[in-house]
């Protein structure tokens, strides 16, 4: 009886491709989900997706991806293999300024810095002749 009920359940398949608006470039790893359900998937490396769902659950899908505006569209407007275009979301970020503090005069400047600091002079670096930063860090205690 359970098998017969399951076999009569109607499912619908939605297939398509999520692309960047104005180009034919597919958007990989975009989230595609059926509204008000836990049914969804992610696009593959070329932007293609496929979802199977019960038609009575919802009538819309939402497509979202970092760097793009989310889009909610009616399922009946998505044909098999249609391209769905997402528009790029351009963020204006505040200016970032990176400042540095020089430890001039070698060990003298270290007394002003809170915490644990180790100074390795250019002479020490030349004597040990290390080729990468990991080897240098091994000689620093802690």
What does this entry look like structurally?
- By secondary structure, the chain is α+β, with helices and mostly antiparallel strands.
- It contains 3 helices and 7 strands.
- It has helices at residues 2-8, 122-128, 133-138, and strands spanning 12-20, 31-34, 40-42, 48-53, 60-64, 71-74, 82-86.
- Strand 2 (31-34) and strand 3 (40-42) form a beta hairpin.
- The longest helix has 7 residues, at 2-8.
- The chain starts with a helix and ends with a helix.
Tell me the fraction of residues in β-strands, as a range.
25-35%
What is the tally of helical segments? Answer: 3
Average pLDDT level: 79
CATH architecture of the largest domain: Sandwich
Choose one word for the global shape: elongated
Number of domains: 2
Mind summarizing the main beta sheet?
4 strands, antiparallel
CATH superfamily of the largest domain: Carboxypeptidase-like, regulatory domain
Helix content, binned percent = 10-25%
Strand order of the largest sheet: 3-2-5-6
Through-space gap between termini:
68 Å
CATH topology of the largest domain: Immunoglobulin-like
Topology order in helix (H) and strand (E) letters: HEEEEEEEHH
Mind telling me the CATH class of the largest domain? Mainly Beta
C-alpha-based Rg, rounded: 28 Å
**Strand-pairing-aware structural class:** alpha+beta
Give me the count of strands.
7
């Amino acid at each position: 009886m359970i098998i017969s009920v399951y076999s009569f359940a109607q499912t619908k398949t939605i297939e398509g491709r999520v692309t960047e608006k104005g180009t034919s470039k597919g958007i990989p790893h975009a989230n595609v989900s059926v509204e008000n359900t836990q049914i969804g998937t992610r696009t593959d490396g070329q932007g293609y997706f496929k979802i199977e769902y019960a038609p009575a659950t919802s009538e819309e899908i939402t497509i979202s991806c970092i760097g793009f505006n989310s889009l909610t569209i009616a399922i009946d407007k998505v044909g098999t293999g249609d391209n769905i275009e997402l528009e790029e979301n351009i963020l204006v970020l505040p200016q970032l300024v990176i400042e540095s503090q020089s430890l001039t005069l070698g060990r003298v400047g270290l007394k002003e810095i809170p915490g644990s600091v180790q100074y390795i002079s250019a002479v020490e670096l030349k004597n040990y002749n290390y080729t990468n930063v990991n080897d240098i860090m091994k000689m620093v205690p802690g």
